[in-house]
From TrEMBL:
GO terms for biological process: microtubule-based movement. The keyword Oxidoreductase does not apply. Residues 546-573 form a coiled coil. GO terms for cellular component: kinesin complex; microtubule. This is Kinesin motor domain-containing protein. The lineage of its organism: Eukaryota, Fungi, Dikarya, Ascomycota, Pezizomycotina.
Length: 721
């Protein structure tokens, strides 16, 4: 079954009234509902391009209509175990967020709140009709991809790390490591969660949209329908993509430009993926951006609806044309109409359990028939109404019934799954395919037996890999000895699983280990020592001989222990000593410290003449308010450091935004940039490299000598202490 692409043309906005409307809709001879979008050829206005989609909605379409016709029919399939993906695509300011999220009034609510409302309604009905024998559990995750980094929208922005959440490949799909999953029992609860999370989403005003989404937002709704021992799980993904931007029109400033470049790059990669899929290329460049890595690897194994948002006016002409062309290619992608296998609560080992992190999905692939028919598609199949202008042949494609032979094709490394039982097409259900019989399962080896002329090297490798995986899977199923013993503890079982994966060569243990290391570092940077220790311990499974890791774990344990003891000691002290007693001695230390600083600066000032970049002078106490110029010795030499330099380096090496941002001339943004510069290139190592000299600090991207001078000078400010 193909991706269902529907177009929605938004109304003119107040500032567009009186402007030239160039996008129109039309119906073809067979249906009343418009299915065609018309737009003039920018090079020859007397000629129209015509694009055909499953449905087309003009400015009069209501939120209710879009939901009832395009989204509501997917709900029952979701409850039958099919994954559903609904995404809005279009250039900035065309109505994606309006369509997906919508407004606050009942009538203005968008696809997402309505979808949740429909899901809860159906869930209640199922539970009631089954007299509570069937239960439905709904869990939510919500994240954004901002500047190619993944951030959990259920977490407050202060908790974000610079690098964002890491991605991990898990079989055929990419998962976000460490994403919050929130059980959500009612629509009310959802509304609260969703509203709160949307505050965390990155939006800004641009010239083209007063509340422009600067990120791609992905809401995952996981459904687990349990009847007796059987659990049927499926996921609905509702995605509000950020809009592509022509920066000649946005007049974006520097920061918006960086976001815009990232948005455009990911959308360009999405377009390249779609192009590669429809060209049947062996390599689909989904790894070139996080958004495509997450999306193209999987959300499409089931039902997919793309809502193409368009603006009607001329100022969007080229953007609209480009979106229409993209949508035209997208609708040719076939996705497999396969439901998720139910699992059993007490399933034997070897049967995959379904959870957020291990549901297997598949990359988008074109059907052979689609490419085979590509040339036929170049000519419009649906005659236009009389009087309509003949469309440009190359831009019109028919959406009419095509069928897929892929429904029953087994997924690599997985037992064959049932294809959709929903086969009879009906106008009320746009997702039913044309065949009325359930498709037969096909042996995974059948593909192998047929000679395939002109087969590429990549295809051969792919077949070999599939064969090896099948054999390994078959072998694993034949080996009762590896079934778990009932008394095996969870921890032992986990370790056995990891070991088994490594022996089978099915998992790159190093990659997973590095992910744990990276997370450990992120926790350590945030000062969350206990979580860091847990992550390091998990990483240890992958690097059992790494002595450094042992030392790190040991040190962290000691640190946590010390902290605990310190805490206890402080508690006791607090009970015994008045806090005010501390103040005078603290002040005295500060004064002593200042004196030391001046003495050090005076000594090092003697070496200044040879330093081309920095000049320092011995100063008297009266000159304190002027920034201190630094000697080359101080800049580069780890041994010659004043207490203040040491203090500065210590602060920087905490990699703690809250501390670094307090330095003079730094602020939150620069602090983040400094930490990012410190973390760059460390992903593959298991050691944090400290900055050991001011010169090194000054060489970090975005810092420079002036900033170093300022930061160091600012240490006189008592606020730092
Ligand atoms: N169908 C519609 N009816 C009424 N107003 C609409 C409609 N579609 C969009 N709008 C209005 O147009 C403006 C831009 O819409 P929206 O913010 O949804 O665009 P967007 O595509 O999400 O933009 P960006 O990619 O920049 O986030 C908003 O003020 C929105 O209310």
């Amino acid at each position: 079954m193909g991706i269902r692409v529907v177009a929605r043309i938004r109304p003119q906005q107040s500032h567009e009234l009186g402007k030239d409307v160039i996008v129109s809709t039309a119906s073809n001879a067979e249906s009343e509902q418009p299915t065609l979008v018309k737009i003039p050829n920018p090079k020859n206005e007397s000629e129209d391009f015509t694009f055909q989609f499953s449905s087309v909605y003009d400015h009069t379409a209501t939120q209710q209509q879009i939901f009832d016709n395009e989204v509501s029919p997917t709900i029952k399939h979701l409850f039958n175990g099919f994954d559903v993906t609904i995404f809005a695509y279009g250039s900035t300011g065309t109505g994606k967020t309006h369509t997906m999220r919508g407004g606050k009034t009942l009538a203005e609510r968008g696809v997402i709140p309505r979808l949740l409302s429909g899901i809860y309604r159906r869930a209640r009905k199922i539970v009631k009709d089954s007299e509570r024998e069937t239960t439905v559990e709904i869990t939510l995750s919500y994240y954004e991809i901002y500047n190619d980094k993944v951030f959990d929208l259920f977490e407050a922005p202060e908790k974000r790390t610079l690098a964002g959440l890491p991605l991990r490949d898990n079989g055929c799909k990419t998962v976000v490591v460490g994403l919050t999953e929130r059980p959500c029992e009612s629509l009310k609860e959802f509304e609260n969660l969703y509203d709160q999370a949307n505050i965390n989403r990155s939006t800004s005003a641009t010239k083209l949209n007063a509340a422009s989404s600067r990120s791609h937002a992905i809401l995952g709704i996981r459904l687990a329908v349990t009847t007796g021992d059987e659990v049927r799980t499926s996921i609905a993904s509702a995605i509000d993509l950020a809009g592509s931007e022509d920066n000649r029109r946005t007049q974006n400033g520097k920061e918006r430009m960086v976001e815009s470049a990232s948005i455009n790059k990911s959308l360009f990669t999405l377009a390249k993926c779609v192009e590669a899929i429809s060209q049947k290329d062996a390599r689909i460049p989904y790894r070139e951006s996080k958004m495509t890595r997450i999306l193209s690897l999987g959300q499409n194994n089931g039902l997919t609806v793309m809502i193409l948002n368009l603006a009607p006016v001329r100022s969007f002409h080229l953007d609209t044309l480009s979106s229409l062309n993209f949508a035209n290619r997208t609708k040719r992608i076939e996705v497999r109409e396969i439901e998720n296998e139910p699992v059993f609560k007490q399933c034997p080992r070897g049967v995959p359990t379904v959870s957020g992190s291990n549901i297997r999905r598949q990359p988008l692939r074109p059907l052979a028939s689609i490419v085979h028919n590509a040339s036929a598609m170049h000519a419009p199949k649906n005659p236009l109404k009389q009087g309509d202008k003949q469309a440009k042949a190359f831009s019109v494609y028919s959406d009419r019934a095509r069928h897929s032979n892929m429904g029953s094709r087994p997924i690599r490394g997985e037992p064959p799954r049932r294809s959709s039982p929903l086969k009879r097409p009906s106008p009320a259900d746009p997702f039913m395919s044309s065949s009325s019989r359930p498709q037969k399962r096909r042996s995974p080896y059948r593909l192998m037996s047929r000679p395939q002329p002109g087969i590429s090297k990549e295809a051969i490798e792919d077949i070999i890999e599939r064969k090896v995986t099948d054999i390994l899977a078959a072998r694993a199923l034949d080996q009762p000895s590896i079934a778990p013993q009932p008394e095996t503890s969870e921890e032992v079982q986990r370790r056995l699983d990891l070991l088994e994966k490594r022996i089978d060569g099915q998992d790159d243990g190093r990659e997973q280990g590095l992910t744990f290391l990276l997370m450990a570092k992120q926790h350590a940077v945030r000062g969350e020592d206990a979580s860091a220790l847990r992550m390091y311990s998990l990483a240890k499974d992958f690097f059992p001989d790494n002595k450094k890791l042992d030392v790190k774990i040991e040190k962290l344990r000691e640190k946590i222990q010390e902290k605990k003891e310190e805490g206890r000691r402080k508690e006791v002290e607090l009970q015994l000593v008045k806090p005010l007693v501390i103040e005078p001695s603290k002040k005295k230390n500060r004064a002593e410290q200042d004196d030391d600083d001046y003495r050090d600066e005076a000594v090092h000032g003697q070496n200044c003449e040879s330093d081309g970049g920095f000049h320092c002078k011995a100063r008297t106490k009266k000159q304190r308010s002027r920034p201190v110029r630094l000697s080359s010795a101080e800049l580069g030499n780890e041994d010659v450091q004043t207490p203040r330099t040491k203090q500065l380096l210590e602060i920087v090496n905490t990699r703690d935004v809250s501390q670094i941002r307090l330095l003079k001339g730094v602020g939150a943004k620069k602090a983040e940039a400094i930490i990012e510069a410190l973390c760059t290139g460390e992903e593959d190592e298991d050691e944090l490299r400290p900055v050991t000299s001011l010169r090194q600090l000054g060489q970090l991207r975005g810092v420079g000598t002036k900033t170093v001078e300022n930061m160091r000078f600012g240490l006189q400010n008592p606020a730092i202490e």
